[in-house]
Specification:
Blueprint lengths: L13 E2 L5 E2 L2 E2 L7 E2 L11 H6 L15 H5 L11 H10 L2 H5 L13 H5 L6 H14 L7 H16 L4 H11 L7 H13 L2 H13 L6 H20 L1
Antiparallel strand pairs: 1-4, 2-3
Helix pairs in contact: 3-6, 7-8, 7-11
Length: 238
């Protein structure tokens, strides 16, 4: 199904004569606007299958371009260039170069899931947006989002120890994303913890942050989990 939305036509392809009279009829301005044709042949026929390998993108092949996702989209109401229907269309055709023209806004999906709830084909457009964003991060097309940095820090601790230490996750996340450790809300939270939490709990938390304990008998389990995750990554890129 073709896409004919005006917002998707590049300005350089719109040709308009400011002053034009044809057979005595004045068609100056937008009345004579013409769209110059183009041919797209640089496509990746396997791209749809690539996106299907990412969590959330499994059902992208079901889309029949009804437009319900874009029509209900919270972000589209703020920015008409945020167009899930169009990006799914490009994904199915394998037009990666066209898709990457919008690489700076695809990640802005707020996961309200209005598109997913209204989709008649269970495409789960919100998941497709996330799959596209993760694909671009892994390909080095865009920088890792703060959410991805946090997920990686969380996973690293789980894989290594079978548990996390909240303070260490937060500290490492702030460092990796270039944020100050002395943020007002964090300082206030620590003050309240020192004031209200039992000393035994505070002592244990401080000790764990320094000693980095592991879940009992985690060694083999951790190795199996790491191997599984690696196999999943290879399945995506293989």
């Amino acid at each position: 199904m073709a896409i004919h939305e005006k917002s998707l036509i590049e300005a350089e392809r719109l040709k308009t004569a400011d002053h034009l009279v044809i057979d005595g009829v004045d068609v100056s301005g937008h009345w004579n606007t013409m769209i110059t044709p183009r041919t797209l042949c640089d496509y990746d026929e396997h791209f749809e299958k690539t996106i299907q390998k990412y969590g959330g993108g499994e059902n992208v092949h079901r889309c029949w371009q009804c437009g319900s996702c874009t029509n209900s989209c919270t972000m589209y109401a703020q920015n008409v260039n945020f167009n899930p229907r169009y990006w799914i269309y490009l994904t199915r055709l394998g037009l990666k170069d066209e898709l990457l023209k919008d690489k700076d806004i695809i990640w802005q999906c707020v996961s309200c899931n209005r598109c997913t709830h209204i989709c008649p084909r269970d495409v789960r457009p919100e998941g497709v947006m996330k799959a596209l964003a993760h694909w671009m991060e892994e390909e080095g097309i865009t920088e890792k989002s703060p959410a991805t940095v946090f997920d990686e820090e969380f996973w690293d601790q789980i894989a290594e120890r079978g548990r996390i230490e909240d303070s260490e996750v937060l500290k490492n996340f702030f460092q990796k994303t270039g944020q100050e450790l002395t943020q007002d809300w964090l300082v206030e939270m620590i003050k309240r913890m020192l004031k209200h939490l039992p000393f035994k709990h505070l002592f244990r938390s401080g000790k764990n942050a320094v000693m980095h304990p592991r879940t009992q008998s985690w060694g083999r389990t951790g190795e199996v989990l790491k191997q599984y995750v690696q196999e999943q990554k290879e399945a995506i890129h293989g």
